[in-house]
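Retro notes, item 3 of 5
We never archived the inputs for the adenosine-5-diphosphoribose complex last cycle. Fixing that now. Sequence and ligand:
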Amino acid sequence: MADGFTLTPELDAQVAQAAALLRQARSRVALTGAGLSVESGIPPFRGPGGLWTKYGEPPMDGYQRFLRDPAKAWRERLEPTESWARGLRETLGAARPNPGHEALAELERQGLLECVITQNIDDLHRQAGSRALLEIHGNHRWLRCIECHRRFEPEALAVDPERLPPLCPACGGWVKGDTVQFGEPIPPDVLRRCMDAVAAADCMLLVGTSGTVYPAAEFPVEVLRGGGRLIEVNPYASELSELASVSLRGPAGAVLQRLLHHVSTSAESGRAA
Ligand code: APR
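Structure as it came back at the time:
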């Protein structure tokens, strides 16, 4: 159980309520953010201990800088010069999924979660076994062609430091890291699939997101417009708290494991009945 966190009877009753909502729903999507990976040692962006809080927001024209000088951007990717970028790369490399990621993967396995849309680039949902996964801001380990949007798994494309940027073997376009930079459009194929999943959803689980960055921040509103319900998991109030039917104030790891417990036990008692 995360430090200082206690599952009070009141919170446990709320988690049971959220479990009932999840079970009654027809199509459930989870929208996750940096808060989910805090217990894996990756700082959030905003709020207490946030990266941007500490170092200030990065320049909003990261993508335009890539387009102006892709070789320079690649040299920075291969050998980061900025201390925070080096620190983040080490932290991402060492991070492992936590009980929150594992609970979401298990909900999917039990057929109680149709899809995870993550704003995180940390690859931890994939490592936890989530399969119906949409990485709307990309994955720090993957590469992507900026022309045909083809994605390349780690090590699938040889990168020659003498010939940068690497070119797409399919269309000859420039290849960059898959992480979506500030100023870069979300790859249209991923965005389309996110919007389809959101349009079909009647229940959205909001985990560890401040709900401040678009287009992802629009998705909960779309679910509400469609008559759906929102369940929030966040130790602190966020922009989305007032919109949620149930807002669970606790760390993602412990709360999602408790949610999994409730949905599984109510399933068993349902079967026993
Ligand atoms: N469990 C659950 N939620 C937590 C935890 C925890 N242990 N710790 C912190 N949080 C919550 C915070 O209260 C905050 O509301 O996680 C949220 C993190 O918010 P942000 O740092 O703004 O992260 P996110 O919403 O993912 O940011 C969206 O902004 O900078 C860009 O591209 C970046 O994907 C990112 C996007």
